[in-house]
Write a structure and sequence with these properties.
Helix 3 packs antiparallel against helix 4. A three-stranded mixed sheet has the order 1-5-6. It is 45% helix and 14% strand. The chain is α+β, with helices and mostly antiparallel strands and 202 residues long. The protein starts with a strand and ends with a helix. The chain is globular, with a radius of gyration of 19 Å.
């Protein structure tokens, strides 16, 4: 395998792995170029000699086999969960598989957003929608995070920025951050991880 980047895209189908040729129920889509992708099984993904960059939902590049394995297993479990719900909508499959803990404090963020939604007369409903998104995604896009930062500052709500998680996985999210002028980048910087700040020179 000649390398590439995996950003969380999972394929559920019993088709051959592009690397080893073995059939697998779950394959992980690797971006090689803008127009070319490959699909690899879990074993091939974990062979570090392939130099596949694995990016988690927060946008951090995972560097250790244990963290990569956890992220692969989580995304595969979530994809299988959604597939089962779509095939048998009348069956209650329970909540989504639990994510490994983010560096961010999940409950702290939900508590802060709840206080903000109650305090903010202008954007309360928008904050509630973003809180519901965070409850399942556990991260925000750069534009969403900038909005939340603005409203938290305007309403004087104390919080710990490092507890929030900003996703920089998709091309759209990366373009949002790159499109910010310098003062917006300074506002969002405390909410980014060290890896994100170093990758984008913030």
């Amino acid at each position: 395998m000649s390398g590439g980047t995996w950003r969380g895209v999972v394929s559920i189908s019993s088709t051959p792995c592009d690397e080893c040729g073995n059939h697998a129920d779950v394959l992980f889509q690797i971006e090689r170029t803008e127009s070319a992708c490959a699909r690899a099984c879990r074993d091939c993904m974990l062979r570090m000699v392939h130099a596949v960059r694995v990016i988690d939902r927060r946008g951090d590049v995972l560097g250790t086999p244990s963290r990569i394995a956890s992220e692969l297993d989580l995304q595969a479990a979530i994809a299988l969960h959604f597939q089962a719900r779509e095939r048998h909508p009348g069956i209650n499959y329970g909540p989504l598989p639990e994510s490994p803990p983010f560096p961010a404090n999940y409950s702290h963020v939900l508590s802060v957003l709840d206080r903000l939604a109650r305090a903010d007369d202008d954007c309360g409903s928008t904050i509630t929608e973003l809180s519901e998104r965070y409850a399942t995604a556990a991260c925000f896009s750069p534009k969403q995070m900038l909005l939340i930062q603005w409203r938290l500052a305007k309403n004087g709500i104390e919080h710990e920025p490092s507890n929030f998680a900003v996703s920089l996985r998709s091309d759209k999210e990366i373009a949002q951050l790159r499109g910010f002028d310098e003062w917006r980048k300074k506002k969002i910087a405390p909410y980014l991880s060290w890896d994100q700040r170093s990758r984008f020179g913030i």
